Amino acid sequence: MNLHRRQILAAMGASALVGLPRPSFAATELTLGNFRITTLSDGNLVLPMDFLLGNLPAADAAPVLAQYGITGDTVEPPCNLTLFQDAERTVLFDAGSGSGFMPSAGKILEALDAIGVSADDITHVLFTHAHPDHLWGVLDDFDDPVFANASYMIGQAEWEYWTDPATVESIGAERASFAVGAARRLAAIEDRMEFIDGGQEVLPGILAHDTPGHTPGHMAFEIRQGTEAALVVGDAIGNGHLAFARPDWASGSDQDAETGIATRTRLLDQLATDQMAMVGFHLPGGGLGRVERNGDAYRFVAEV
Known about the structure:
By secondary structure, the protein is α+β, with helices and mostly antiparallel strands. Helices cover about 25% and strands about 30% of the residues.
């Protein structure tokens, strides 16, 4: 297993012509035999603190958050997409936000370009779940598929939830737009969608795991070659602070808080015990790292 981080300059011809600085993207890479895993930035979100805390008293969370330098009324979680490459496939886990969710996100095409991969090179898109920052990037501003040559995979339960017309009424007013947006985008790619279940090897070397709670059909994906493996956890472990320090606390971002707690504590224990590499969508340092026990809690150690 080999891990390293590299800085990549995006090739932006117009900027170069006028002498403007070009943006840089940090790409963290992990190799498992002949598998290559790269984490790429889709930008970041800007969220109200109560979206993270939910019903958790702010006074209880403040001391933990302060240890990570998080204060104020907002949080800005990074968005890390995972790219898998082998001799035959180029697989993207989740599609990012696109241009329709937040102006601070939707940067995946620039990040792919920076490592010499185009949207047309993507052979498969595997969804952990269908929240906007994971799904809305499948369509461009003209509602055409961004990844024109890709096939798509999503958990059967996740598909059924977001395509159910009743979801927009039951999900709550603050997330009703999530349901409307998901249904429209999923309908647009339905003809190229394959439904998958937990425990299924969805592609050679990639195993799906049921990890519900954040959404009803959330999935994680284990990438394995021989004895070496990494787990793409999506939002089942949703941040690098409270989720590790107090995994038993409910997360305001989870649609089913109690199921989310059970899933999160199970994954953290497994990852710490097995010392399996992991990628978290909203974790720091590109999201690639490991879980260590920290007394009765855990901590995330980024690979830098």
